C-alpha cells in the first residue's frame, strides 16, 4: 500500500566496493576518491578521540556518529562555499567537512559557547538540539537566499525521529510552497535513541514522505559516499536553479550509543549492531580503492599520521583555551544589555570578587 | 500629520519601513491578498508585491521558524500571528531559536525579528482569541516585549522594533484597534523601546498599566478625582525591559500604587513591577501595592469576559484600599 515501492534504495558502489552504476565511472576522479577517503578517516578519528576524551572526563556528554560518516561527508562535500548548513548535534562530521574547526567542535562538547560560533565566512548554524526545529529555519534561510536572488542553497540535516515532529512538516511545507532552495538531508539510522523506526512510523521509507509535498524525494544508501555525494549535488543544483527543495533519505546506522550517556544494550543487540560493519562506509571505500587501483598504502599511512597530529593538536588547542569568560553569560543576550542584565551582571561580578 | 486609529498607525508603520528598506518583509496568515483578518496589512501586498508581503501556510511555528531563518540571513521580517492565543505552536521556535541565536553564536547570527500579535479580551471574540500572555515572553531571555496604547506610540514603537537588532514581540490591543484615534506624523519616527510615559500627573497614587488597560485607568482616575484623590497614570509601553525609573520616580512621589493588567495574577507582570518598587522605593511606600488583574482562570468564553477583565470600578476599589490603608 502507498508509495514504499516507489523509493528503492539507490547505490553507485556496493558493499564490496564494486560499481553497480557503471555510468558514474567517468564522473569519478582520483582526486575526488582521495578527498572522500581523507575526510572519512579524519572524521572517524575525530569521533573516536572525542569519545575517549569523554571517557576520560575531558569533555562532557558526546554524540558519536561512527557509521554515519559517508552520509555526512558526502553531503557536505557537495556544498559550495556560500551555502548554508543547519546540522544537528550528531552532524559534526558534516560541519567539520564543510570547514568547521576541530577545536571548536571539541569546545562545543566541552560546554563552551565558543563551540557554536561558525568559522569566518562560513554559514554553519550551531547544532540544533531540539529535534526538527531547524527545518523551518532552514526553509527561511533558503527563502531569504531566493529573495536576495543568489544561487546559494541550504542543507538541513535531521534524523528519522525528527519526521514525527510537527516542525518537520512545517519546514517541508514552507520550503515546498515557496520553492525554497533547500535540501532536506535525512539520516535514517533506524533509531531515535531507543525507539526503532517501526515504532516511529508506519510508512516503510522516509523518502516517500516527499510525495505529500510534491517535492522530489530519493532513498539512497547512506554508507555509499558516491551516491550521497552525487545525489546531494543534484538536489543542490535543482535548488540553485529555482526548482525548490528535495528530500533525501540516506539509510545508515550508528554503531554506538545515542550519546556517551546512553546504554544501547538496553534496547538493542549490540553484537547485531557490530555486524553492520559489513556495510561500513569507510571499509567500502577502501575496497573500492583497492578494486579500482586508487589504493596507495604509503599515502594512507601518511594521511593517517597527519590526521592524528591534527587531532592531537586540536585537543591541545581546546584544552589550552582560556577559562570561560563569565561576562559571556550576560553580554550576548541582546546587542545592548538591558538594565536588568546589567544589574545582574554587576551584582554577580561583585559577588565573585568577594565584595558583596 | 494625520489622524489615525491604532491599527491604521500600525499599517502606516509597516508601509513606512517597507518603503524605506528592501530587507523588510511582512508575512503571516491572510496578510497578503486579504490584508489581514483585522486589515492591519491592507493594501500592502498591492503596493509592495507578493515577494514582500507574503501569505503563508497556516502554521505559526512555520511562520516564526522561517522568519528566524530569514532574519539570520539578513532580512527584517515582520511576522504576524493572527491572535496571541494562537502563538503557542511557535513558542518553541521563539524560546529555543529566536531568543538564543545571538548567545549561541556570540553574535555571529542575530535575529532581528518582529512578531506582531493582537491580544486581549473585551471584544466578544470566540474562545482562545482573547489571551494576554505577555508574561510568558517577558520571562524569556532575549526578546523585548512592547505594547502601545496610542496610535503615535504604535507607529513609533513598531519602527523601533523593526530596526531593533533583536527579536521584539509587538502586542496589539485588538480592543484599541479602532477605539482610539490620534495624530500620527508622516514618515519615519521612533518611540524608544524601554521607556514608559506619564499620561497624567497626580500626587496621591500611581496607576500603572499598558495597552487596553489605559482607558480603564483613565476612567478610574476621573472617578477618583471626584473623591479628591489625585492619580498619576503611567503607561509602560514596553513590558521588557520595563522602565524602572519612571515607576520609581512616580511612586517615590505618591507612596501608593495600583498595577492593572488583564493577564492572570500569578506569574503576571504586576509582580515584577512590585519587585521593582521593592528594590527602588521600599521606604517611600505608605500602603501595600495593589494589583487589579485577571484571575488565575482561563480568559472565559465571552459571556463572562466582563467579569474577568479589570474595570474602572475594580480599579477604584483598589485605589481606595491603598489610600485608606
From TrEMBL, chain A:
Q: A GO biological process this protein is involved in?
A: branched-chain amino acid catabolic process
Show the catalytic activity: N(6)-[(R)-lipoyl]-L-lysyl-[protein] + pyruvate + H(+) = N(6)-[(R)-S(8)-acetyldihydrolipoyl]-L-lysyl-[protein] + CO2
SUPFAM superfamilies reported in the protein's UniProt record: Thiamin diphosphate-binding fold (THDP-binding)
Which residues are the signal sequence here?
Answer: none
GO terms of molecular function: pyruvate dehydrogenase (acetyl-transferring) activity
For this protein, what is the EC number? Answer: 1.2.4.1
Q: Which UniProt keywords apply?
A: Oxidoreductase, Pyruvate, Thiamine pyrophosphate
Per the record, the domain of life is Bacteria
Boundaries of each Dehydrogenase E1 component domain copy? Answer: 41-326
Q: What cofactor(s) does the depicted protein rely on?
A: thiamine diphosphate
Q: Name one Pfam family in it.
A: E1_dh
> What stretches pass through the bilayer?
none
Function, as annotated: The pyruvate dehydrogenase complex catalyzes the overall conversion of pyruvate to acetyl-CoA and CO(2). It contains multiple copies of three enzymatic components: pyruvate dehydrogenase (E1), dihydrolipoamide acetyltransferase (E2) and lipoamide dehydrogenase (E3).
Its subunit composition reads: Heterodimer of an alpha and a beta chain.
What name goes with this protein? Pyruvate dehydrogenase E1 component subunit alpha
Question: Which source organism?
Answer: Ureibacillus xyleni
TrEMBL record, chain B:
Q: What is this protein called?
A: Pyruvate dehydrogenase E1 component beta subunit
Which UniProt keyword terms apply here? Oxidoreductase, Pyruvate, Thiamine pyrophosphate
Named cofactor requirement(s) = thiamine diphosphate
A GO molecular function for this record? oxidoreductase activity
What SMART domains does the entry give? Transket_pyr (SM00861)
Species: Ureibacillus xyleni
**InterPro entries assigned:** THDP-binding, Transketo_C/PFOR_II, Transketolase-like_Pyr-bd, Transketolase_C
**Positions of the Transketolase-like pyrimidine-binding domain:** 4-179
Region forming the signal peptide: none
Q: Which SUPFAM superfamilies match?
A: Thiamin diphosphate-binding fold (THDP-binding) (SSF52518), TK C-terminal domain-like (SSF52922)
Q: One Pfam family for this entry, by name?
A: Transketolase_C
Amino acid at each position: 500500500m502507498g508509495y514504499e515501492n516507489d523509493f528503492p534504495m539507490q547505490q553507485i558502489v556496493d558493499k564490496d566496493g564494486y560499481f553497480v552504476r557503471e555510468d558514474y565511472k567517468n564522473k569519478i576522479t582520483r582526486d575526488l576518491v582521495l578527498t572522500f577517503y581523507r575526510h572519512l578517516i579524519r572524521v572517524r578519528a575525530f569521533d573516536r578521540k572525542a569519545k575517549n576524551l569523554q571517557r576520560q572526563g575531558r569533555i562532557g556528554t558526546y554524540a558519536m556518529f561512527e557509521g554515519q560518516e559517508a552520509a555526512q561527508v558526502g553531503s557536505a562535500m557537495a556544498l559550495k562555499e556560500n551555502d548554508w548548513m543547519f546540522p544537528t548535534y550528531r552532524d559534526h562530521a558534516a560541519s567539520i567537512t564543510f570547514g568547521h574547526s576541530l577545536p571548536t567542535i571539541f569546545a562545543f562538547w566541552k560546554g563552551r559557547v565558543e563551540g557554536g560560533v561558525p568559522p569566518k565566512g562560513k554559514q554553519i548554524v550551531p547544532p540544533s538540539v531540539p529535534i526538527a526545529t531547524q527545518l523551518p529555519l532552514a526553509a527561511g534561510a533558503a527563502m531569504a537566499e531566493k529573495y536576495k536572488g543568489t544561487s546559494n542553497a541550504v542543507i538541513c540535516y535531521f534524523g528519522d525521529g525528527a519526521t514525527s515532529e510537527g516542525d518537520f512538516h512545517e519546514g517541508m511545507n514552507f520550503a515546498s510552497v515557496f520553492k525554497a532552495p533547500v535540501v532536506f538531508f535525512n539520516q535514517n539510522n533506524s533509531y531515535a535513541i531507543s525507539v526503532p523506526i517501526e515504532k516511529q512510523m508506519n510508512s516503510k521509507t522516509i523518502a516517500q514522505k516527499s510525495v505529500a509535498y510534491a517535492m522530489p524525494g530519493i532513498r539512497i544508501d547512506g554508507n555509499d559516499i558516491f551516491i550521497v555525494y552525487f545525489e546531494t549535488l543534484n538536489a543542490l543544483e535543482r535548488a540553485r536553479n529555482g526548482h525548490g527543495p528535495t528530500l533525501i533519505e540516506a539509510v545508515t546506522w550508528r554503531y554506538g550509543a545515542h550519546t556517551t550517556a546512553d546504554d544501547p544494550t538496553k534496547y538493542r543487540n549490540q553484537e547485531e549492531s557490530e555486524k553492520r560493519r559489513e556495510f561500513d562506509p569507510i571499509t567500502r571505500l577502501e575496497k573500492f580503492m583497492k578494486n579500482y587501483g586508487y589504493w596507495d598504502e604509503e599515502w594512507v599511512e601518511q594521511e593517517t599520521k597527519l590526521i592524528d597530529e591534527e587531532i592531537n593538536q586540536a585537543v591541545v588547542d581546546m584544552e589550552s583555551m582560556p577559562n570561560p569568560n563569565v561576562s559571556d553569560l550576560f553580554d550576548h543576550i541582546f546587542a545592548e544589555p538591558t538594565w536588568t542584565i546589567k544589574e545582574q551582571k554587576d551584582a554577580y561580578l561583585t559577588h565573585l570578587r568577594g565584595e558583596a | 500629520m494625520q489622524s489615525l486609529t491604532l491599527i491604521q498607525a500600525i499599517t502606516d508603520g509597516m508601509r513606512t519601513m517597507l518603503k524605506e528598506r528592501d530587507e523588510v518583509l511582512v508575512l503571516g496568515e491572510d496578510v497578503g491578498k486579504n490584508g489581514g483578518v483585522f486589515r492591519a496589512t491592507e493594501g500592502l501586498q498591492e503596493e509592495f508585491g507578493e515577494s514582500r508581503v507574503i501569505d503563508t501556510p497556516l502554521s505559526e511555528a512555520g511562520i516564526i521558524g522561517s522568519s528566524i531563518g530569514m532574519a539570520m540571513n539578513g532580512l527584517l521580517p515582520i511576522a504576524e500571528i493572527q491572535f496571541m492565543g494562537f502563538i503557542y505552536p511557535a513558542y518553541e521556535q521563539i524560546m529555543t531559536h529566536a531568543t538564543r541565536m545571538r548567545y549561541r553564536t556570540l553574535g555571529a547570527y542575530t535575529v532581528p525579528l518582529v512578531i506582531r500579535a493582537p491580544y486581549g479580551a473585551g471584544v466578544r471574540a470566540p474562545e482562545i482569541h482573547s489571551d494576554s500572555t505577555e508574561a510568558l515572553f517577558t520571562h524569556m531571555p532575549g526578546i523585548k516585549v512592547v505594547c502601545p496604547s496610542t496610535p503615535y506610540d504604535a507607529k513609533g514603537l513598531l519602527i523601533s522594533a523593526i530596526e531593533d537588532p533583536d527579536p521584539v514581540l509587538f502586542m496589539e490591543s485588538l480592543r484599541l484597534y479602532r477605539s482610539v484615534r490620534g495624530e500620527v506624523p508622516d514618515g519615519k519616527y521612533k518611540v524608544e523601546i524601554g521607556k514608559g510615559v506619564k499620561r497624567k500627573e497626580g500626587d496621591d497614587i500611581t496607576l500603572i498599566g499598558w495597552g487596553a488597560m489605559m482607558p480603564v485607568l483613565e476612567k478610574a482616575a476621573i472617578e477618583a478625582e471626584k473623591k479628591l484623590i489625585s492619580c498619576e497614570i503611567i503607561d509602560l509601553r514596553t513590558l521588557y525591559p520595563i522602565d524602572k525609573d519612571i515607576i520609581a520616580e512616580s511612586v517615590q512621589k505618591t507612596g501608593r500604587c495600583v498595577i492593572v493588567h488583564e493577564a492572570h495574577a500569578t506569574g503576571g507582570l504586576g509582580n515584577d513591577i512590585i519587585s521593582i518598587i521593592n528594590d527602588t522605593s521600599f521606604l517611600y511606600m505608605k500602603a501595600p501595592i495593589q494589583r487589579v488583574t485577571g484571575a488565575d482562570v482561563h480568559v472565559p468564553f465571552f459571556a463572562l469576559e466582563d467579569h474577568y477583565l479589570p474595570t474602572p470600578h475594580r480599579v477604584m476599589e483598589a485605589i481606595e484600599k491603598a489610600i485608606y490603608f
